[in-house]
């Protein structure tokens, strides 16, 4: 297994192997990010003729430029060239407004080292370069981010050191870990590369970096990026140019010539609805198969048969990247491989929701199990409530291998009692030092609901005076039309009490600055906030959708998640959750007695398919799936309500929307 905390692209030799191996052990032992590189990553123009140089990057330490036994004068040129290039990167990404010019930081933050001084004493070697000044510690993290290609938006980082907990966590400097860095920069020659990770591990962001690397690596590379959902594909097509601009890519994007971003299926005759499958069919002369002719899986299988019957297949792409791979079956991956000359990258969740059984079906090439969006204690509680670990009847049982795939260390198993832990994350160091709870569990009666909700927001404002409305989201996990009325009621109450504007995500479908977000579970995928208030009014029980909704919602926060539950429906489970949460907070461990029994698979499948949703939920999902413009949504919604006011039959509703789309 690779070391998440360690990355090296330096070639091992008899001279440096002991040093590099000890660095890797140090990184693992201290849960400390360590990078040893030969030049800035991701910047191909910065290369050096001196081959005996190594650059050691560790947060809270000076950057150590090390001579691995080469000529002294040549090493000094290497040192000067690297520091000059780092200065160029600082200027290029506007870091200079915080770092200043290289002459201001070069002598304090860079140091020359000789590997001969190592002498087997790594701790002593590193201690000489340790920093104590908070400003210099922040500067060194910015310089490391430049050197490893983990570029941060400097506009989110203030020139002065952040003072409050909210500012410190929001302005945290992102550094790719070892696994993320390897995925982006390590060249692996194989036809298929798979990457799996928990939600919040940054898979889509890594795919964007990979596209940028492939696009700039060779001006002839042809790259396709796809996912199942049309709305997500459209979002990614808008996001890529902005990302290229942010990463200062100087080459113009050649759409339809070197880069394609499209959803997976598409249409035969509609030029505005081109999908990867329809593009392959048109380019290779494959008979197109639409929805009326069968499933997407069957369409891909027939396309594979057609291509295999041809004498040869001319590759359409050099690389294909697939996001949300859990939405596809094997046939789509195989079809992509047949029309790709080099590599197909397949990225997906360890599980799309915590009840799907696709953990560890195959061993991925890259496993991302460090969730950088959510404090580890929040993730522990979210998993425990999702799986029913503190209750007599559990929701889902994981094997030891599955727990490990989710990023847990199994410390002890003793007579049915399990103790699990997670690695600490640098992003949440300040939160660990504070007295702020990452999860707060509260219950309410219907008569004091408003009092409790307003009280939570007042508490957030009191503990974090610089909080703004868009730092907070209120998520209602129960489904049904009544809860749209509840969200409207919450909006009015918050406006009356605080004078804040609110943003109902089920209507707007987008985040608005200086608006407090209010949403149901259907509109929060991919979003994150410092503070989440999760409202569970109806009985939680053994309903797996509700458990998954709780898991998804609680893990949207990066400071505190508040879980507000009705005491009239959830008294029994509340007491068990309160006890389990207390153990997590006291021990920084997930400790539980194995439930006496678990829901069997038949019950689980039945419950998943028996999901009760409102008509509005179904209509919103159809709008998203078909990327229907917002200007047409309200007229279509009224037509559905008029023609079938009580229907929750998706096929019927979809047929009405499709039929009337051209008339609104």
Q: Overall mean pLDDT score?
A: 89
Strand residue percentage:
15-25%
Largest sheet: 6 strands, parallel
Physical arrangement of strands within the biggest beta sheet: 8-7-9-10-6-11
Assign the structural class, choosing from mainly alpha, mainly beta, alpha/beta, alpha+beta, or little secondary structure. Answer: alpha/beta
Count of individual helical segments: 25
Overall geometry comes to globular
Low-pLDDT stretches: 606-612
Radius of gyration: 26 Å
How far from one another are the termini?
56 Å
What is the count of β-strands? 22
Estimate the helix proportion, in percent.
40-55%
Brief summary of the model shown:
This protein is of the alpha/beta class and 664 residues long. 42% of the residues lie in helices and 18% in strands. 39% of the residues are buried.
């Amino acid at each position: 297994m690779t070391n998440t905390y360690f990355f090296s692209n330096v070639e091992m030799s008899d001279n440096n192997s002991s040093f590099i191996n000890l660095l890797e052990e140090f990184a693992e032992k201290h849960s400390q990010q360590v990078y040893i590189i030969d030049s800035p990553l991701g910047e191909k123009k910065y290369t050096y003729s001196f081959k005996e140089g190594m650059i050691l990057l560790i947060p809270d330490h000076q950057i150590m430029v090390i001579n691995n036994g080469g000529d002294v004068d040549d090493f000094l040129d290497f040192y000067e060239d690297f520091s000059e290039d780092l200065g160029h990167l600082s200027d290029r990404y506007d870091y200079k407004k915080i770092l200043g010019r290289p002459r201001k930081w070069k002598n304090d933050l860079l140091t020359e080292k000789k590997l001969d001084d190592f002498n087997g004493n790594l701790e002593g070697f590193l201690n000489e370069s340790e920093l104590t000044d908070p400003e210099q510690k922040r500067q060194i993290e910015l310089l490391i981010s430049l050197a490893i290609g983990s570029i941060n938006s400097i506009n989110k980082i203030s020139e002065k050191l952040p003072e409050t907990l909210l500012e410190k966590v929001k302005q945290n400097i992102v550094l790719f870990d070892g696994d993320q860095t390897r995925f982006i920069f390590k060249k692996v020659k194989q036809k298929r590369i798979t990457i799996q990770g928990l939600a919040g591990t940054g898979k889509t962001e890594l795919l964007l970096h990979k596209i940028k690397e492939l696009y700039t690596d060779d001006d002839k590379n042809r790259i396709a990026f796809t996912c199942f959902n049309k709305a997500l594909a459209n979002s990614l097509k808008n996001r890529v140019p902005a990302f290229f601009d942010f990463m200062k890519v100087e080459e113009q994007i050649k759409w339809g010539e070197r880069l394609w971003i499209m959803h997976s299926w598409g249409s035969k005759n509609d030029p505005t609805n081109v999908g990867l499958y329809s593009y392959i069919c048109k380019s290779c002369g494959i008979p197109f198969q639409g929805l009326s002719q069968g499933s997407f899986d069957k369409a891909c299988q027939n396309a594979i048969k057609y291509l295999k019957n041809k004498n040869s297949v001319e590759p359409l792409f050099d690389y294909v990247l697939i996001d949300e791979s859990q939405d596809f079956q094997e046939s789509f991956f195989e079809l992509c491989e047949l029309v790709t000359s080099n590599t197909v990258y397949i990225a997906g969740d360890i599980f799309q929701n915590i009840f799907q059984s696709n953990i560890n079906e195959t061993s991925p090439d890259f496993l991302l199990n460090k969730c950088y969006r959510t404090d580890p204690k929040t993730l522990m509680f979210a998993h425990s409530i999702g799986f029913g670990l503190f209750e007599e009847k559990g929701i889902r049982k994981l094997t030891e291998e599955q727990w490990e795939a989710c990023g847990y260390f199994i410390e002890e198993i003793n007579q049915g009692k399990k103790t699990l832990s997670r690695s600490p994350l640098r992003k949440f160091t300040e939160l660990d030092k504070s007295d702020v709870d990452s999860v707060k569990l509260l219950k309410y009666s219907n008569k004091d609901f408003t009092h409790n909700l307003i009280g939570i927001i007042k508490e957030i404002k009191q503990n974090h005076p610089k909080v703004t409305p868009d730092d907070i989201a209120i998520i209602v996990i129960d489904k049904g039309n009544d809860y749209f009325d509840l969200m409207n009621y919450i909006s009015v109450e918050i406006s009356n009490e605080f004078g804040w504007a609110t943003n109902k995500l089920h209507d707007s479908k987008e985040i608005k600055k200086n608006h407090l977000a209010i949403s149901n579970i259907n509109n929060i995928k991919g979003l994150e906030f410092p503070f989440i208030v999760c409202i569970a009014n109806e009985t939680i029980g053994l309903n797996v959708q509700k458990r998954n909704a709780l898991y998804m919602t609680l893990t949207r926060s990066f400071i505190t998640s508040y879980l507000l539950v009705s005491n009239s429906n959830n008294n029994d489970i509340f007491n068990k959750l309160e006890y389990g949460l207390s153990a997590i907070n006291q021990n920084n461990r997930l400790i539980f007695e194995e439930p006496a029994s678990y829901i069997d698979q038949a019950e689980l499948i039945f419950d998943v398919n028996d999901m009760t949703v409102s008509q509005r939920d179904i209509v919103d999902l159809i709008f998203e799936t078909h990327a229907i413009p917002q200007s047409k949504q309200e007229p279509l919604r009224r037509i559905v309500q008029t023609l079938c006011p009580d229907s929750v039959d998706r096929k019927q509703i979809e047929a009405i929307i499709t039929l009337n789309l051209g008339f609104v």
